[in-house]
Amino acid sequence: MKNILVAVAVLFLQNYCFAQNEAARIDTLLNAYTNLNQFNGSALVAAKGKILLNKGYGYRDAATGVLNDEHSIFQLGSFTKQFTSAVILKLQEEHKLSVSDKLSKYFPAYPKGDSITIKELLTHTAGIYNYTNDENFMKNEITKPKTREQMMALFENKPLDFSPGTSWSYSNSGYSMLGYIIEKVTKASYEEAVHNYIFSPLKMTHSGFDFTDLKSPDKTTGYFVLNTHDTMRAPIVDSTVSFSAGAIYSTTGDLYRWSQALENNTILSASEQNEAYTPVKNNYGYGWGIDSINGKRRVGHNGGIPGYITTISRVPADDVTIILLSNASNPTIGKISNGIYAILYNQKYEVPKQRKAVLALMSKPCINITGSMS
């Protein structure tokens, strides 16, 4: 018995030391990118139900000098689509709709709505014009509240990019339509539906939708440019514009609650998740990009909205979660995520050392980031 207890103690210490070592290496990696002005935000990394790291890097607000921490609140951009997809699946579970339903069932006047299914909206295979490709709108209108009719007018009468189901093209418009369908079916606002089905049950109390009116000391400022030489603040996209395609804000902690709910089948059943994680075209399912690491399925989504870049991904088989939320528009976040995965899976990775003048500058505001993992 004594030998067994000793063996258990040794195993515990080995696992503890390994986890501590992983956390230290991840922190070193993130600090290196932060020092090069290539990451500014908060990060959470977890494995097997244990949080290895949850902390902030860089500035929550550069003007005041307030630093990011684990409580910082960020806009998520297109990661919102996972929540939209989840509500659709919950409504299907309740027999209130089916992913095989035609768009015309809910919007009879929608052009060619009888040829587009909810599943095609979920998987970006409907061919609906992506309103964020409208440069004039994105330049001049995104900060102003819009009605459903005003938003739909941006795309409903545009020709389809292709016959529904035959190809793939990322469409925020399609996900906006999913939000409008949710409102029709639930007879509640999209925000209320997400709260009722997800945020409230999971006690995601730091998550919401209207970032413009959010009054919280933890609210971050988004930047197009943020480095040692210059800053350029980004405008806040009105939630009626980004809506069910990109309006949600959250924290690393709340998003980990969501990840654990998926791991434990709390909100979505295993079969519903399998449906969502099954790629239709371009390695994309229902609001999830799908690829693999070490021969195991990895699912997640990237997000981008002016001043913010995010990536959240999971390896369900290993209960691994990586959440990176940045309040600076820097494109290296996918590379950072891959470096963290390399640490977790004992693969080669590089810690950046050379000092570079990096400007986190987008040529134009954009809220569409593809679902493919990078």
Key attributes of the depicted protein:
single chain, 374 residues, alpha+beta, Beta-lactamase, six-stranded antiparallel beta sheet, 16% strand
Could you please describe the fold and organization of this structure?
- With 374 residues, this protein is of the alpha+beta class.
- The chain has a single domain (40-345), classed as DD-peptidase/beta-lactamase superfamily (Beta-lactamase), CATH 3.40.710.
- The chain is built from 11 helices and 12 strands.
- The chain has helices at 2-35, 80-93, 118-122, 135-140, 148-152, 172-186, 190-202, 239-246, 252-263, 270-276, 333-344; strands spanning 41-47, 50-57, 59-61, 66-67, 74-75, 223-226, 231-233, 249-250, 289-293, 296-305, 308-315, 320-326.
- The strands form 4 sheets. The chain has a 6-stranded antiparallel beta sheet, with helices on both faces.
- Helix 1 (2-35) runs antiparallel to helix 11.
- The longest helix has 34 residues, at 2-35.
- It starts with a helix and ends in a 30-residue tail after the last helix.
- Residues 4-18 and 356-374 have low confidence and may be disordered.
